[in-house]
């Protein structure tokens, strides 16, 4: 799988927020992004720094299914099964646990 063009993405991001920047001509920092053979250097204003900060902190990985209800691990797969303790979290996990308890009570 080819790498996404992160340099182009950052350039487009900065272009998208630039119209809302109250001081677009006052850079306060620089970001240099090197991916493979590509290199992008971006001057960031205070507005751009805040927007980039918020974008990074609000990012949620598509594979992030939350934390395990049992051990707190973040290695929970899309089926809500924890790879550290094998516990199944969420409503499905609760349903499984209730069913297992019923089966055990019946002695099956
Ligand atoms: Zn766990």
Question: What distinguishing features does this structure have?
Answer:
108 residues; alpha+beta; two-stranded antiparallel ribbon; 3 helices; elongated; binds zinc ion
In short:
This protein has helices spanning 6-17, 46-58, 90-106, and strands at 27-35, 38-45.
Extended strand count: 2
Catalogue the ligands.
zinc ion
Elements, N to C (H/E): HEEHH
- Proportion of strand residues: 15-25%
Lateral strand order in the biggest sheet: 1-2
Rg result: 23 Å
- Spans of at least 5 consecutive residues whose pLDDT stays below 50 are none
Overall domain count: 2
Shape: elongated
Biggest β-sheet: count, sense, barrel? Answer: 2 strands, antiparallel
Structural class of the secondary elements?
Answer: alpha+beta
Provide a count of the helices. 3
Average of pLDDT: 93
How many angstroms separate the termini? Answer: 48 Å
Fraction of residues in H or I helices = 25-40%
Question: What do you see in this structure?
Answer:
Strand 1 and strand 2 (38-45) form a beta hairpin. The protein has a two-stranded antiparallel ribbon. The N and C termini lie far apart (48 Å). It folds into two domains: 6-58, no CATH class; 63-108, no CATH class. The mean pLDDT is 93. The protein contains three helices and two strands. The protein has 108 residues and is of the alpha+beta class. Zinc ion (ZN) binds at residues 68, 70-71, 73, 82, 84-85, 87.
């Amino acid at each position: 799988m080819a790498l996404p063009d992160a340099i182009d993405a950052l350039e487009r991001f900065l272009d998208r927020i630039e119209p809302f920047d109250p001081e677009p001509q006052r850079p306060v920092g620089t970001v240099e992004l090197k991916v493979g053979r590509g290199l992008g250097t971006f001057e960031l204003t205070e507005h751009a720094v805040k927007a980039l900060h918020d974008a990074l902190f609000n990012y949620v990985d598509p594979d992030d299914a939350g934390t395990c209800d049992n051990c707190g691990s973040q290695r929970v797969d899309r089926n809500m099964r924890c790879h550290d303790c094998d516990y199944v979290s969420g409503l499905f996990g609760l349903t499984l646990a209730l069913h297992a308890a019923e089966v055990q009570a019946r002695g099956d």
